[in-house]
Amino acid sequence: MSAIRIGICSLLAFAVLTDGGVPDWSTAVLEIAAALLFVLWGIVAVRQRQIDLRPNWLYLPILGLIAFCLAQKLFGLSAYPYATKVELLKWIAYFALAFLTVEALRDGAQLKTFLVFLVTLGFLVALFAIAQHYTFNGKLYWFVPLPQSSEPFGPFVDRDHFAGFVELTAPIGVAMLFDGTLRGEKAALVALFTAVSIAALVLCGSRGGIVGFAFASLFLISVLRRRNNRTRRFLAFASLIILCGSLVFWLGASAIMQRFGALTVSDISRDQRVSMDRDTWKVFMDHYSTGTGLGTLESVFPQYETTYTGRVVDHAHNDYLEFLAETGVIGGFLGLAFIVLLFRQGLANLNSCEYQSDRAFYAGALAACGALLVHSFVDFNLHVPSNALLFLLLATLASADRRLRDPWNAESTGQNWRQKDGGVKSRDYSTSRPAAATR
Amino acid sequence: MLVDFCHRRSRWSFLFLIVLAAGEFCFLAAKVRVAEEWNESSNPKKWLAAARLEPGNAQYWEQLGLYDELNLEQRDQSRAADYLRRAVRIDPSSAHSWLELAALDEDRGDFSAAKRAYEMAQSDFPISPDVAWRYGSFLLRQGDLSRGFAALRRAIDKEPSLEASALAESWAVDPSADSIAAAVLPEKTAYYVRAIRYFLLQEQTGAALTMWTRLLKLNQPVAMTDSIDLIDDLLSENQVSEAHHVWNEALQRSGWLVAPDADASLVSNGGFERDLLNGGFDWRELPFRGASYDLDSSVFHSGHQSLRIMVDGAANINFQHIFQYVYVAPHQRYRFRAYLRTEGISGGNGIEFDIFDQRHPEELQTLTPVLAGTNGWMPVRVDFESGADTQMLEILLRGALGPAFDSRLRGSVWVDDVSLTPVRRGIMSATR
């Protein structure tokens, strides 16, 4: 399973670093690698002679959506079946990776490693983004040519997508700091990593990103405020604010503030957004039962476009409306079920946690997912492969059933599994380790 | 949820299913990517391979169709049509594919199929100026002028840069400015102003005048600058009355016109309170090296500013670069007056106003007294009578020529309160 964990983390980093996985070749690598990891999981399961699946309510709406979109393609319900197929391949890959992540991250140590990986990845990408911002020569990574009117930030061609990535990683670090999971040097390191990510988010000037992160912060404050150690939390919060503020000031606050007031070439105006939302709603109303087909908005939208801009509208800058237009009421219901189940299960897991590290994870993951869901009202981060993948990973992890999470503390009996050394460990609770209160 | 694989068969079946599913998935993903790669190559054979590998991608078939249509060496319109029809069958909402198919059908003489294809494109992308333009052009070629003009109107409403081409196409099928204005131009000032400039460039002054008349009927604000090109063109064709008529209409519509007075000055902007229009019946300033002029708000005779001219004497220039055309009546007495202020005017004889009929100089040419050296605000005045054929005068501020050939005029002069008023008979004088 460690190979699968490493594979997932590598894929995630690969997707982030290749313009969010947007280029076709990057998406193809993601999809094929997901399939190979799935096969690897199958091999591991066969070798173990058993599969210990963790139930997850979120699988229902996801699989339902995949099945529905497959039906769109196969039964002529899609306006452009090829586009639906291409989009469906991505979502199947995301689901496969999310499933594997839930199966591969079984105990607190593995989860913590994953969190550290996310925070570190966020830091490294943010650091690169800041460096590139101040030394920008018009090319991504200083050598990859960019399309006209693009506003890259970090490895992303669109600054708002970079913001989406930070929304999914920074709240994890914030949650770890707030919850007192870490002490001393580790806390200082995570604080630094998180502060750099937040500073990069402010520097990129994504208004939707700032609002999303603000939501995440408020969410964390509200779910973690019932805990003890208020003083420590206050100190952590204050330290983070001071660190972030110092970084932002050092990076150039005035230019950042100017960005918030100005539209740039690649921006769309408020009127254009409103027009796009209205037109996408009309698409939904004309196809409210089954939608136009996953991934078909770009094909269908011109028929409904009312404000000509000369640009191709490939996404509606509102993931909810786009999703409704493409999948209709059926997809909308499944999407709503997904969100409800995510927060219901996630909050239930959060409130029944025994360990601080787990609380930090659930709180951070839910905050991150919430931030991206808020940002999705004005952008299309869920159509950027790296952000969609990370969102789904966090969502499925946050809502996965906790009962079998730690095999040493499992309630069920009579289960056998093979250890790495080939021996068989039985579930004999007279000889089992005590509850890992020292984690 | 625990699933046991106690039996070997169950383990291998499970693994087989996993490998099968993953393998199929990999194959589908790889197929998409490989087809994309082939389609992006410069080898047309790979494009066909890409289309066969992913026959559900309409873009691949469209590309093949365009290649067969536009390939000068091996043009195959029949095959191109097949490819394009396949593209629109796969993706009926692609306006671009329908447009290409329509163009091909028209080229092959199948006008009814072309019309259907254009209509599909229009239905798929109603707001597109490109679709409207191509459809409109087709309709004009088919003789359906009303629908063709309507389509061109939709095109230029979204893409104003197409206006000149739309006017050219419309004029070619119906050389009537009235029809074009009514059917093609959106009812906005900017379109009519551009149309005026277009017809002037085509030396169709009559059409330009028609556009001007229709512009006024829009009852929308008009800037004085919108009329300058037309007036200058009319003046160049010696249509002075028409030019003045347009000038007056522009004055009224733009709000420049002050309440008329029987004795009001005929000189426009005589007090230099507004920026110079550089055309029409307003002041014109020609650029020249060695001199500069601006509106001086610190030195003026009345109002808020005056015109200042500074000559540095660097070049031997015959200074006559500030002038205005004034519409006058023939056989009418006029009094010209202006106020000049000079500072260090030397070289040559000084500064004077020259008033003459450019078209009939023998009938009228008069000069004001010369001013040189340094003087405070001094009025210069001359009375004269316009000639029998005089319709328009030119009031020119010039450097008076001196006895020496090498007259390097230098110094500064301020001009303000320039006026030309009709004089009742019996009151004539020339004073300073």
Concise structural overview:
With 439 residues, chain A is mainly α.
Model description:
The complex is a heterodimer of chains A (439) and B (432). With 439 residues, chain A is an all-alpha fold. Chain A has helices at residues 2-17, 24-48, 59-74, 81-104, 108-134, 159-178, 184-204, 207-224, 230-261, 270-286, 297-300, 319-351, 356-375, 385-399; strands at 50-52, 139-140, 144-145, 416-418, 424-426. Chain A has a two-stranded antiparallel sheet with strand order 2-3. Chain A has a two-stranded antiparallel sheet with strand order 4-5. The longest helix of chain A is centred in the last third of the chain and has 33 residues, at 319-351. In chain A, 47% of the residues are buried. Chain B has 14 helices and eleven strands. Helix content of chain B is 45%, strand content 19%. The mean pLDDT of chain B is 90. Chain B has helices spanning 8-39, 44-53, 58-70, 77-90, 95-107, 111-124, 129-141, 145-158, 163-173, 177-183, 189-201, 205-217, 225-236, 240-254, and strands at residues 2-4, 284-285, 291-296, 306-312, 322-327, 333-346, 350-356, 365-367, 373-385, 392-400, 410-422. Chain A binds chain B through residues 24-25, 27-28, 31-32, 35-36, 38-39, 41-43, 45-46, 49-55, 79-82, 85-86, 89, 92-93, 299-300, 302-303, 305-308, 412, 415, and chain B through 1-6, 11-12, 14-15, 18-19, 21-23, 25-26, 28-30, 32-33, 36, 54, 56-58, 90-95, 123-129, 158-159. Strand 1 of chain A pairs antiparallel with strand 1 (2-4) of chain B, so a sheet runs across the interface.
